[in-house]
Structures are given as C-alpha cells and as structure tokens.
Amino acid sequence: EAASSPAEIRTTCPYCGVGCGVLARPDPQGGLRVRGDPDHPANRGRLCSKGSALGETLALEGRGLHPLIGGTRAGWDEATALIAEKFRDTIAEHGPDAVAFYVSGQLLTEDYYVANKLMKGFIGSGNIDTNSRLCMASSVAGHRRAFGTDTVPGQYEDLEEADLIVLTGSNLAWCHPVLYQRILAAKSARPELKIVNIDPRRTASSDMAELHLALEPGSDVALFNGLLARIARRGAADAAWLAAHVSGYEAALAAAGADDDAATGLSRDELDAFYDLWIGTEKVVTVYSQGVNQSSAGADKVNAILNCHLATGRIGRPGMGPFSVTGQPNAMGGREVGGLANMLACHLDLEDPAHRLAVRDFWDAPRMAEAPGLKAVDMFRAVGDGRIKAIWIMCTNPAVSMPEADAVAAAIAACPFVVVSDMYADTDTAKLADVFLPATGWGEKTGTVTNSERCISRQRATLPVPGEARHDWQALAGVAAAMGWGAEFDYASPAEIFREHAALSEVAGRLGRDFDISGLKDISDPGYDALAPQAWPVTAARQGGRFFGAGGFFTPDGRARMLPLSARAPARPVTASHPLRLNTGRVRDHWHTMTRSGLSPRLSQHIAEPFLEMHPRDAAARGLSAAELVRVTSPAGEALLRLVVTDRLRPGTVFAPMHWTGQAASAGRIDAVVAAETDPVSGQPESKATPVEVAAL
Ligand code: SF4
C-alpha cells in the first residue's frame, strides 16, 4: 500500500520491543484506525493482533483525568507543591537515599531522561529503577561484562540473513509476533534456514523449529558451556579473531570443560544434534529473551551465549550474533538514558568517577549520585522496611507485577508518601497513592522510543489530551521547579529534551561509549517532528549498522571478555511441600497487567481467563482434572487458576500467564506467588523457577 495519506500520522506501537511503525488515522467519532507502516524498517507494514487492536483500547474508562490528593480532586499546582514539599522534607531529614523513583519501559525516552536527571543529578541518589529490571537487566549486565557497554551488536536483518536461528528462552511467536512473522517469511523463501527452539515448554514458537530442546529449567549455562567445549574440541574456535579481539578464552573454556551438560536433562542425541548444527553453520543468530534473563543466573546465561559467539567470531557480521530481544517498547531507550539504578545517561557508568564528573558538568548538577541506587526488588524491600519514605511510581503497576506482589502492595500501602503517575486511576498501585497524577498515554504523547535493534522511532500524538492529564516530563519538570531547579528543567518540548540528550551523547562518545547520537544534537523542531526511524549510532561519520564485526569493543583495551562460568541451579530448590517449578510468561494477545489490552474484547477472546498448565503425570498424582479451579501456593502467596492439562511442558513444571491482576480475591494474580530471588549481578528476579504446590480448591 502506498505511503500515508496526509490524515495518517506515523507513530510507533506501544507494546513490545519489536517497535513496529504504525499509521494512525483519527476518525470523526474519536476513534483511531491503524495499519502497519510499510516504510518502518522493523515491521514493513506488518502488525500483530495487539498492534492492530490499538484503536480498540482508547476508551476513557478508568482513566485518571485530574490530580488527586488522598483520593480527592486537586489542582496540578497544589499536587506539585505537595510532592516537592514531601520530597524536600524527606531528603532534608533522612538524606537523598530515603526517596526513590520507580519508572517503566513504557515511558518515552524524553520522560525517562528527565526522571533520571532529576534523581541522579539533582536529588543526588541512584534510587531510580525501572520495571525493565524485571525484563532485561541480565542482558544489560551480560553485554557490559563482555563488551564494556550495553551494546546490541546486530539488526533484525540478521534474522533473515542467518542460516540458523536459535530461539532460546523466547516464545517469539507470541511475545514478538512481527519478528516471528519475519522469520517465517524468510524460512518460506529459503527453506534451508534452520530453527532451533530451546525452552522447557513447547510453545507456538516450537512449531517452526527443526529441533526443540526441552531442557531442564535453569540449565542454559550447562548447555552453552557444553557448546563452547565442543567448539574447542572440533577446532571451530577462530584463533586469529580470538588473538586480535578477545580476552579470557582459555579460562572460559576451562570452566566450560568442567561443567556437565547432562544437567540439561537432554539426551546425548539431542545435544549432539544441537552442537553439530550450531558449529556447522557459520551464519547463526542466537535470539534470547526472558527465559534467559529472568533467572538468578541470568547474567551468566547471557555470557554463556556471548562466549560461544565470541569464540567463533560470529558476531557483528551479516546473519551472525547474539540477539537480546527486549520485552517493552522502550526498554532500550530507558537503558540509553540510564534509567537503571546502576547506570548513568548515554551508557556512561555511574561507578566511574570520570563519567560521573562529565555528567555533573554537563547537567551543572548540584548533587550527583555517588553510587548505584537500589534495584527494583531491593527498592521495594527498602520501602517495606522504612528506609525509603517517599516514592514516585510512574507508568507501571508494581503492586501486581513485582514478585511477592502481596508484600510489595503492603509496602506501598505503608509507605509514608506515595506518588503515582498513570493513565489509569484504578490500577492496584494507583489506588494506594497519596497523590495521583493523571498522565497522557499512547496516542496522546509525543517523543521517541528505541526498539531491540537500536532503532529510534517517534511516537506522535494523534488524539487530544483528556481532562487535565499531562506528559510525564511536564509533571517531573514541574516538581523539579518547585524544588528549586526551574532553570535546569525549563523544557518547552520533547524536542528540547531530545537535543540535550543527543548533546550529552557526544560527551559519552568522547569517553569511548557506544551510544552516540550527536549527529542529532542540533535537530530543529520541524526536523524532530519529521524524524524518520533510524538506528544509532548517529554521528557525523556513521549511522546505524552492526557493532563489533571488525572488533573494537568498548572495554579499556578494546578487547571483548569471555567469562569463566559454571552452571547453577535456580536459587530455591524444590521441596516436599513445594515440589513443582512455576514458570511465568505472556499470552499472545495481552500486555503486562492488561490495563490497555484488557479494554479490547477482541484481544480477550484469544484466552479469556488465567490458567495453569500442568503435565498429565503431575495432574494425575494430585487427582486434578482439566478445567477445574486450582490453588497455586508458594511461601510468598497464592493464586487461583483454571487447570490446563498438557504435555507441552516437562513433568515437575507448571506455567501461568503474568497478566491477570486478580481484582477479586487472588484469582490469577500469579506474581503474588513468584519468589523475589534475584541475580546477584543483574538484580533481575527469577520469575521462571519458583517452587510451588498445586491443589484443588
Ligand atoms: Fe506492537 Fe510488538 Fe505487535 Fe509490533 S510485534 S505490533 S511492536 S506488539
């Protein structure tokens, strides 16, 4: 179909990290017709079920239209002054680490940048973390350990150029459907393209795979260590590349050789088939997602994958490389602005004094954070035990979505001062707010997002702002001004914030960081309005492209690091009282806690209610029948779910979707059950291996 007519507005889907371009046309009834943008490099006109239903999710039902103080309507001036006063008083009495921001991969980059600047440069604490911690923090940690920066080496085109795609811990068919469609199209054009799917559970993504490896939960390091050892034995390591560009090969190999891939639970034939295919196919892309990241050994799993690509030099070249596919639309943008508690803006390092100084000078910041702040799970523990006394939660619903959600909800309820900014005033978290700020949402706000292949795209407003809602950057700048920093936060538009971020990236580029969009630092307002999707870096010399094909990593000596790794079982062993491992994940047609996707009856038709998948052997052992209601329990809490008996998963494991919030009793609220165990390196929770028991109601 031809490019957009004048009435169509180019924007970007707000759901997953594929970052599809959308053409949206408002209709006279206040609705929106959407179609895929044929000119967007991520999707080339495609949309999945969620993206194509965007027009059905715009109802004002549940929207917060006015600020509320203690549940009563208030004005913006009054609410802003109260937030500034409470934060100022808390900081004066208890220090800057007594306050925190908990933000979201749904924020636009410009909102994220302002939040990070206010907390890390002006309040002077590292206590800003994000729900992206639950999604891809292990990938960030793995990238930084191996490459020196959080760099995604490849591009989506590599999926089409590969001869082998390994999907590990990724149900791409449901969670990143347009990428899955691109792979299907490539496979249909070139049937010799092989797919391997590594997942304890047989999913929709397994259907197109030549080989499905239903490995023991958490045994990914053992598997990729086995691959590394086999690479060496077969003489498939690239000695010249290793000598020129990589450190740590011998130590990584020694550790891999000491590991036993029998821990995967896979047969020798299955392991040999995988190793032979991987080693024998030069153009291999290993795609990984939450099945790898959401683990108490998530960073090690990431590095085990990176080790294999580094050993063979299969990185940064067409059709080759590890590929982290992020969950949220702007998880990457959040990483770029330093939205994680242990990062600074533009991939600068909070723990590096030279980086801190550079950012302090650039911001003219009065009080730079000196140390990393609390990561999400620890942040809510600190809310619970009183160390954090004031928190501002933006655009996310931790009372439902954090592991051990009951304890998190109780901590928020007991916190002396809670601000929640959200589109919706009726979320479980918004109901706990002392001050609620109505925020604009997709279709109303304007700014940029970055997808999983580093492509920066514009979200553009297509609809009027309802009620008194404001953009998040406006709410933040208002509070910053009320706290005495009006000049430093006197932004007139997202374009102005974007220019500042781009100018800071020039500083980062000079300090040897990968994130450099200095080519956009002087972009005009019309230029920003018209900004076409483009992958970073964007400098005078370069735009987009792959990293690392010719070497040159972002470590002090320019060499990548292979790490010695040993497989570890999930943090909590199963026990006689909790003998099953709970895996959690998404369904095809819902998003997060369904605040938006739940508004579309069409999306709810695919799967109408929360469920628990269980192997027939385990169901029989408990006398449970398909379709009956069951109670899932862990030491943290319980959830009520409809039982699905299926051999899609391994005996001893169960699976539940993460979306349902259980407004009535504990129905479906699975994160109440998930244990808050985290990876010691990345801080990411282990959302896929909680020991549980299941019984009839
Ligand atoms: Fe939106 Fe992701 Fe679907 Fe694309 S694949 S339309 S970004 S949900």
TrEMBL record:
Names of required cofactors: Mo-bis(molybdopterin guanine dinucleotide); [4Fe-4S] cluster
One Gene Ontology cellular component annotation held by this UniProt entry: oxidoreductase complex
GO BP, sorted A to Z: cellular respiration; nitrate assimilation
Record's keyword terms, sorted: 4Fe-4S, Iron, Iron-sulfur, Metal-binding, Molybdenum, Nitrate assimilation, Oxidoreductase
Boundaries of every 4Fe-4S Mo/W bis-MGD-type domain copy: 6-62
A single GO molecular function term of this UniProt record: 4 iron, 4 sulfur cluster binding
Protein family per UniProt: Belongs to the prokaryotic molybdopterin-containing oxidoreductase family. NasA/NapA/NarB subfamily.
Protein name: Molybdopterin-dependent oxidoreductase
Span of the entire protein shown here: 2 to 698 of 880
